[in-house]
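Worked example 3 (structure in, sequence out).
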């Protein structure tokens, strides 16, 4: 499994908002600017066959319009584009298109061939698509949200929390994956988000698990825990059934310590 981080930041950072691409075709979240970030990284948005959305906040979702435009303006797909996310996904896409490009979705929809798999965010669920087994787990954020457990055909197991506080589903992912990407928005956890203190708690409990800290503010830069990785935008990892390949464990890239705040808004 090839894992590439399209973005690693939270809203008030110069890094792109957090999203990740698996094997150049399975995209997790479509935050603001993510299609431009893919192009800058030399990746083709038309190669995406599966798109997983954790929740409908703009910094995770709003570029869905541009993923669909990238695909519909360039090609008529010969197979479905599988869109997996919380219940209401299809309605949200209809509404966003009507707001942004009124009257254009019907024609685009025929070319893009979206097929939705929607899960109740209170329960989660499981599906198999393109050789991947994808399990959605209920997370605890300020809005209904899902995390994902992804197993590829070769048996590599990846977890992605999306935005959440530490909750039973985070531990469930940690117990059954070899690489886990976690919301690490702040030095300490706040409403709706884990902090580095929460992630270090997971690292201590599962010392053999590789944790990738993403959705980071600029004040989350390093940890004494050896199994927490602080990736840069665009960084790639190679994951096998045995776990993260040692030669793909890059050194963390440190950024500045500019302080940020969220001005009392729960994002
Ligand atoms: Zn959010």
């Amino acid at each position: 499994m090839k894992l590439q981080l399209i973005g690693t930041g939270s809203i008030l950072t110069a890094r792109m908002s957090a999203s990740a691409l698996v094997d150049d075709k399975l995209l997790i979240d479509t935050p603001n600017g993510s299609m431009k970030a893919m192009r800058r990284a030399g990746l083709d948005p038309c190669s995406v066959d599966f798109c997983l959305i954790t929740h409908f906040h703009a910094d995770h979702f709003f570029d869905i319009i541009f993923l669909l435009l990238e695909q519909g303006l360039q090609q008529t797909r010969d197979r479905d584009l599988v869109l997996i996310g919380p219940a209401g996904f299809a309605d949200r896409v209809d509404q966003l298109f009507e707001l942004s490009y009124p009257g254009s979705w019907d024609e685009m929809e025929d070319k893009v061939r979206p097929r939705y798999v929607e899960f109740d965010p209170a329960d989660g669920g499981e599906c198999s698509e393109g050789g991947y087994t994808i399990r959605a787990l209920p997370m605890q954020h300020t809005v209904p949200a899902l995390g994902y457990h992804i197993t590829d055909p070769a048996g590599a197991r990846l977890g992605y929390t999306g935005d959440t506080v530490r909750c039973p589903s985070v531990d469930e992912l940690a117990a059954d994956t070899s690489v886990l990407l976690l919301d690490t928005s702040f030095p300490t956890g706040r409403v709706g988000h884990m902090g580095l203190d929460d992630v270090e708690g997971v690292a201590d409990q599962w010392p053999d698990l590789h944790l990738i800290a993403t959705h980071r503010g600029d004040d989350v830069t390093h940890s004494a825990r050896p199994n927490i990785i602080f990736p840069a935008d665009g960084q790639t990892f190679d994951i096998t059934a045995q776990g993260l390949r040692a030669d793909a464990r890059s050194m963390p890239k440190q950024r500045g310590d500019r302080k940020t705040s969220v001005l009392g808004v729960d994002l």
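Notes: The radius of gyration is 17 Å. The pocket of zinc ion is lined by residues 55, 57, 60, 141, 163, 267 (CB under 6 Å).
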